[in-house]
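Workshop exercise sheet. Pairs work together: one partner reads the sequence aloud, the other fills in the structure field after running the prediction. Swap roles for the next sheet.
Pair: D.N. / O.F.
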Amino acid sequence: MDDDQGRAQDRNEPSSASEIPATVIATTEILINRSLARGGIGEIYAANDRATGRSMAVKFLRDSAVGDAACREAFAFEAQVTSQLEHPNIVPVYVTGVTVDEQPFYAMRLIPGRTLNAAIRDLHSAQTEKGEAKYRSLETTLLGQFALACKAIAYAHDRGVVHRDIKPANIMLGRFGEVVVLDWGLAVRVARDERARLSGEESVLMPTAVLDAPQEPTQSFSGTPAYMSPEQHDGSRHVGPASDVYGLGATLYHMLTGQPPYAGDISLIRQTVLANKLVPPSKVKRGISPALEAICLKAMAHDVADRYASPLDLAKDVEHYVADLQVSAYREPALRRAARWGRRHRKFVQLSIVSLFCLLAISTVSAMLLRKLADEEHEARQAALAMAARLAAGTAALQVDARWRILEHESENVLLRNALTIRAGEAGEGIPESRWDAIQEVLDEIAFSNREAVDAECWAVCDASGVQVARSPRGSTIGQSFAHRDYFHAGNGDLPVGATSRPLRESHRSTVYKSMTTGKLKVAFSTPVWDEKKTVSKRECLGVLMMTFDVGVLFHEFNGIGGLNGTRKPFAVAVIDLRDDRIDGAPQGGLILENPNLSGGDLAIESQDVRADPEIVSRLRQVASQAPHQVAAIDIGNSSERIAAAEPIIIPGRPANLANIGWAVLVQECE
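Structure field:
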């Protein structure tokens, strides 16, 4: 050990073991505020620790139960179990003890929020009031929180503890994403199974007079009847971890159907459970996913051997369902598996469809040309050009529309909306940038999850005033105002720097602009993020979500279109921007975004010759203004042997002001 290390040790370690006290006594004073809830033997109050100011919940043994030795022992067991199960999803206990008048209590964390029971009611109300899309979004969120509760129960099993009273009312959902399993008053110790022992961890429950040895939880009726397993109702069978798996399955049943799995008095429920007469969830409510129903029914299997071996296995299947993966409890039909594969490889499927369309188009055009080649060569050449122009325009329209739809979908991201809502509520001078971290985290997740579907150069979020509050990948532009940019206000071009404007109200394609760093041509797609007000007239724009691209990225699919020509001359495909831009200073149209001499994504502004001839631009604008739009023959004027066809890029299914994005495809025969 060198001198520096020795001096550091001298500073951090006491010189003698006698300086360390053998016992430290900590005291605190708890101020009881108000009553929160009352149970069979306990009462819970909201309170504050005078010393720290920390809010807490304090549970007392009710006066009527204080004199009952069994109640006191059960209360002490609950306090000790809850204290020693240290897990993020199990409510932490701060202190246990007795009052001056010998009334036992323990203080635990106060979780502001609602129970899973209340969340389930809101979930099924949303299906009626807000529609199927909102219901599915909320259901996905609750399923993720349910999986966390499963993991908390698995942790307790690993420590040799069985809960025995799992139900929606005993799972608390905090306002900030917390998931906490409550009420361990009916918990018992059991022998840890082989898998738990092989985990290498010792049981967290320290031996005491109350918890001296594992108990055999039989011959007792403990729990809530509608959620109790058959062995709990039987009373003569062993009650172990599998009973908690059943309770979790019953909780999932309630989540799927909006009601407990059984109803009636205790004797009726007991008779129904022991007779294995569970009504499948899909018979209670229509539209439940077969995979989710299979997960629920496996967890609630009558025979213990047929259930999930552990709550972790149940959590894994639920998480697989949320992630659109195969679940172990349900073997899907081949068609459904193929559909999921397609959703997970969307880009490949899209490319395959385009390729198939190209092959079909090639076959069709080739057949037409072969039949007419002898005496209708010129007409066949025009038809091939028209087909190529229509195909190229349709391909480009799909590329643009796909990006808009991804943006519009992500603008409804609940986490992004909530983060922007908080940002809007704190608008003003001096708001620290650290408060934007929530928006940045959501945007990073959006960019990551869509990285294969789109190849955006960057994603960004501006608040309602135009200030960029997040960018992925992160950059120095965060905190700057972009209210003057047309992708924020949806104008026909940028405003003077420093100008203020209102955010756009519908999806928008920006004017093409030149990158200040690479010199490449860029384009931005953007869409507003609205608050959750039901009526369109009353909702407010919280900000703008956008992504930027090199323009050439949108036209990679054009590489094979030149091969459509069955005549003696190949095709050349160009894309021309008919709207005015300010890349060269004054407003000017005709910017060439793609042509055969340029590699996709490498277009840089180096000279004036990247614009189309004004006469051709004028003719293309006439074609784009026609209704309905028609493929038009263009006389390029330099050779009677050379012909061309043009088609505006129109996005199908969009309103007129969005459908025509101001770009046109020009297909001509090469010399």
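Discussion prompt: The chain has a mean pLDDT of 80. What would you look at next?
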